[in-house]
């Protein structure tokens, strides 16, 4: 979680210099581009940390875990995007503060869904 916020901050302020990212066929707002840039690093790292450190007792096969992880992360990414855009565009919050707030809202949902769905263990 802290790595995600840190990567967002670095991407937004120092890589993108708070300027929109022009891909030639679409222009992406700097905070949305920073969200995707951070996601590209935290997605695989998050899966590995969850699988081998946080929820290492899961009986599900790795392939099933990865598919479920992708589903939960896709929901989280959509929620992050929506909350970030609402806070920045409509409430005029600073993007990094908005990212921290969005992450704080999503972290409980993410943890519980990963624990009880993605990396569930046998009931005792």
Furnish the topology, listing elements before pairings.
Blueprint: H1 2-15, E1 21-22, E2 27-28, H2 30-54, H3 62-90, H4 95-118
Antiparallel strand pairs: 1-2
Report how far apart the termini are.
30 Å
Main beta sheet, described? 2 strands, antiparallel
Mean pLDDT: 93
Q: Which structural class should the secondary elements be placed in?
A: mainly alpha
Within the largest sheet, what's the order of strands? 1-2
Work out the number of β strands: 2
* Share of residues in helices: over 70%
The topology string of helices and strands comes to HEEHHH
| Cα-atom radius of gyration | 16 Å
Spans of at least 5 consecutive residues with low confidence = none
Q: Supply the number of structural domains.
A: 1
Range of strand content: under 5%
Shape: elongated
Number of helices: 4
Would you mind describing this structure in some detail?
The chain is mainly alpha-helical. The chain has one domain. Helices cover 74% and strands 3% of the residues. It is built from 4 helices and 2 strands, in the order αββααα. It has helices at 2-15, 30-54, 62-90, 95-118; strands at 21-22, 27-28. A two-stranded antiparallel ribbon has the order 1-2. β1 and β2 (27-28) form a beta hairpin. The longest helix has 29 residues, at 62-90. It is elongated, with a radius of gyration of 16 Å. The model has no long low-confidence stretch (mean pLDDT 93).
């Amino acid at each position: 979680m802290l790595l995600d916020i840190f990567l967002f901050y670095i991407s937004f302020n120092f890589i993108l210099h708070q300027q929109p990212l022009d891909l030639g066929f679409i222009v992406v707002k700097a905070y949305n581009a920073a969200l995707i840039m951070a996601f590209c690093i935290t997605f695989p790292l998050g899966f590995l940390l969850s699988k081998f450190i946080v929820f290492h007792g899961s009986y599900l096969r790795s392939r099933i875990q990865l598919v479920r992880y992708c589903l939960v992360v896709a929901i989280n990414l959509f929620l992050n995007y929506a909350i970030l855009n609402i806070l920045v565009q409509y409430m005029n919050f600073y993007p990094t503060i908005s990212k921290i707030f969005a992450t704080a809202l999503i972290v409980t949902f993410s943890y519980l869904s990963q624990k009880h769905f993605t990396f569930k263990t046998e009931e005792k």
